[in-house]
């Protein structure tokens, strides 16, 4: 159904008027670069309404890749679909690469459900041997099985050369490495094998990297640190530099922020009409030992990937107001925010947009000016060094500091 924007309209009001979710409306209109900026006369696509949606037939249909076809229903999310079909969220996402943002699906979309966990054989022990193109044997077979279980290969592809590391296995390994922020070399070395083992278990674990709690590593923000570039943004990353609550320093806080190189990191690059300010805030606060979670339960407590709901920028703002205090966050002034950041304490900026999409960012060590505290952010514009007004403009901003 087509809709023409009228005077006074905004995306949330249009969604409410047509009894659909704001997310499904945004997902159905990728031509709208900024959902907060629509204009009179603009044409929008209204996806199927909640009250007239007809569920897909219950008879399973097999797809060409060997999975089961599924049609998204009102109220669905990728995590709920994965749980309902007893598959991992990672495997579901990997089997549906046409979905550019797993947080935005809408009724009527077609998905492929990969083979369920219950139908799989027990996971074999992780091999100790590195394998690459041209390798053969049981270690290659383990890698291929891991790639099938995590959705990066099909059983039919493996059947063309079981136990043989050929071009299809090489391509699948490289895709897996790219999606998980690993070195993309096509070699199933120790780090790649550990990540494959986690993916097989459906744990949604972050890539394992060496974590530095001291001060031996330093970054200037020009290049992302190893392990911080995975673009499946709903999964966490384990950054190499981490802070510890109770042992703060301005040098450490600067290094934690800089290691993500938000201005050039593909993890935060706008894509598919979506931006990732909430993910950047999640990553920095998590590395600082003061996590503002991305996945929470109904009480605002952190849960594992796919086991609760995801926090959008507005969700982060609400979480800070409703649950921040019991997790060590308190509201402060702009001047207090800059002073705290200059002491090495994690500080977050936020704007709750009741009529659309909000914004969150990081206050970093620096100098407060007429444009507000020093800042780093992801969003429509990504920058590692700037000021709050560079991201928020004249919008009212709240500040939160973690002790």
Describe the structure.
The chain folds into four domains: 2-52, LysM domain (Membrane-bound Lytic Murein Transglycosylase D, Chain A), CATH 3.10.350; 61-118, Membrane-bound Lytic Murein Transglycosylase D, Chain A, CATH 3.10.350.10; 121-200, Orthogonal Bundle (Muramoyl-pentapeptide Carboxypeptidase, domain 1); 250-402, endopeptidase fold (from Nostoc punctiforme). Strands 8-13-9-10-11-12 form a six-stranded antiparallel sheet. Strands 3-4-5 form a three-stranded antiparallel sheet, with no helix packed on it. It has a two-stranded antiparallel ribbon with strand order 1-2. The chain is of the alpha+beta class. The chain is built from 13 helices and 13 strands. 28% of the residues lie in helices and 12% in strands. Residues 49-60, 116-121 and 202-215 have low confidence and may be disordered. It starts with a strand and ends with a strand. Strand 11 (374-377) and strand 12 form a beta hairpin. The longest helix is centred in the middle third of the chain and has 13 residues, at 167-179.
């Amino acid at each position: 159904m087509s809709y023409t924007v009228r005077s006074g309209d905004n995306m949330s009001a249009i969604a409410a008027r047509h009894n659909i979710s704001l997310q499904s409306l945004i997902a159905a209109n990728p031509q709208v670069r900024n959902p907060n900026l629509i204009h009179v006369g603009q044409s929008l696509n209204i996806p199927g309404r909640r009250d007239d949606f007809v569920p897909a037939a219950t008879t399973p249909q097999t797809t060409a890749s060997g999975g089961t076809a599924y049609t998204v229903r009102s109220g669905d999310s990728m995590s709920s679909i994965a749980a309902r079909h007893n598959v991992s969220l990672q495997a579901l996402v990997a089997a549906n690469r046409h979905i550019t943002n797993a947080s935005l699906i809408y009724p009527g979309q077609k998905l492929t459900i990969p083979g369920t966990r219950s139908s799989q054989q027990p996971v074999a022990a992780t091999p100790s041997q590195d394998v690459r193109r041209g390798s053969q044997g049981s270690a290659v077979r383990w890698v291929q099985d891991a790639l099938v279980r995590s959705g990066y290969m099909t059983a039919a592809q493996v059947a063309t050369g079981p136990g043989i590391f050929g071009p299809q296995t090489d391509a699948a390994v490289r895709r897996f490495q790219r999606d998980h922020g690993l070195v993309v070399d096509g070699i199933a070395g120790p780090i790649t094998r550990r990540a494959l083992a986690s993916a097989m278990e459906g744990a949604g674990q972050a890539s394992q990297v060496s974590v530095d709690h001291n001060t031996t590593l330093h970054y200037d923000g020009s290049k992302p640190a190893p392990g911080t570039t995975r673009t499946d943004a709903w999964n966490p990353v384990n950054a190499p530099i981490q802070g510890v609550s109770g042992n703060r320093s301005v040098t450490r806080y600067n290094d934690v922020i800089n290691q993500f190189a938000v201005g050039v990191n593909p993890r935060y690059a706008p894509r598919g009409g979506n931006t990732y300010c909430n993910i950047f805030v999640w990553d920095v606060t998590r590395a600082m030992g003061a996590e503002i979670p991305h996945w929470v339960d109904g009480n605002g407590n952190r849960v594992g990937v796919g086991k609760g709901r995801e926090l959008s920028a507005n969700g982060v703002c609400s979480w800070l107001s409703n649950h921040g205090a019991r997790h060590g966050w308190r509201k402060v002034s702009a001047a207090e925010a800059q002073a705290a950041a200059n002491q090495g304490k994690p500080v977050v900026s936020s704007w709750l947009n009741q009529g659309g999409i909000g914004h969150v960012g990081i206050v970093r060590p620096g100098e407060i000016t007429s444009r507000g505290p020093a800042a780093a952010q992801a969003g429509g514009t990504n920058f590692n060094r700037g000021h709050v007004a560079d991201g928020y403009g004249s919008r009212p901003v709240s500040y939160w500091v973690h002790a």
